[in-house]
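so my prof wants the structure for this chain in the tokens format not the other one, which i didnt know existed until like an hour ago. anyway here's the sequence
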Amino acid sequence: MIASAFMDVSREISRALSFNRREFLRSATGACVASALTRSPLRAAQLPRQKKAVVVTFGGGARDNETFMTEGQENIPHLLSELLPQGTFFTQVVNRGILGHYVANASLATGVYETINNFLAAPPQNPTVFEYYRKDLNRPRTDVWIVAPSVGFERIGESLHPGYGPGLGGNVILPKRLLAAALPTGARGNYDSLLRDNYESPLYSSESATVETDLARIAGVLKLSVGDFLQNARNAQSPDELSVFVLHQLMKQFAPSLLWITLHDIDIAHAGAFSLYIDGIRRTDRLCSKIWNLIQTDPEYAGKTIMYVLPDFGRDSDMEASGNGFQHHRTGDVRSRTTWMLAIGAGVRQNVLVEHPIESTDLVPTLGSYLGFSPRFAQGKPIEFL
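here's what i got, hopefully its the right format
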């Protein structure tokens, strides 16, 4: 009885969050609410022949208090005024898994709630979207790239699942590791703000690749000299800005059909400084707009690409006695588990809100439905909306 009552309350709070987002966005953008459910967000006649997908996830998602509520709207001007009117926005995305950034992103990438250790460099237990895509469509490795923060993310590209795994994954590139490898001895302190791996720990994680290997990747993959890479890093205000720079280089060099980038600046909230947390939200909002503009101005991507933007999960409520509000995501309360998603791009209906609840694990089957592969082991299902 107690568990059932708790679930009922959780569902009510989740619906309330969805309703509040819907009403705010209707008033702010004039978006219409989907009144019927179908199998796809796309108008079939508008689907491009050559399809591409870009997935943008936020590590340490922002709360509604600082985004979709009235007092927070000033922090997301690009999302509200530029991106939402062009896409379909899902007001209720539920994450029922472990609320750690690596494991949550691994769950997004597999369509299964993974149970791996969040702080170890361990591969996902289930096949990833990158493996499904490459195996089913016989795509080369250069067609799939993941740009990620460190903290174990180097293993997110492929699983150890029988029939998939080694040789079928995507390329993972870690801009912070590349920067650390490129720096002259003793120069690390000058880039300290760009090298921080994990905002939940005072320590840097160990570097998994040799300096020689990483420098070779800078020169060979990004087509940049070490000096040019360092110059761009010097001009970056944050690790996420460096990641978007690397993403742009990959787009120019390979025009991959499946790109995945995890933005992590918001997670500075763990330091307990509210102003830095707000700066992270505003920067992430701006960088999402920048990524979309890169897509729209590149002929390899314009008119062919859907971009999906979603937090991996939320943050604690101020009302939870066992939490620390914006600073952490430890309680597993409804506000930590209920987030949102924006789909924008080729064939996606514009200025539409969808209240129907979906789960984090639905992303991979949705990508499969769009790109044409079968995510056989995923727990989710293709997202249904108008």
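also thought this was worth mentioning. Strands lie at 32-33, 52-58, 87-94, 144-147, 171-173, 258-263, 305-311, 338-345, 352-354, 358-359.
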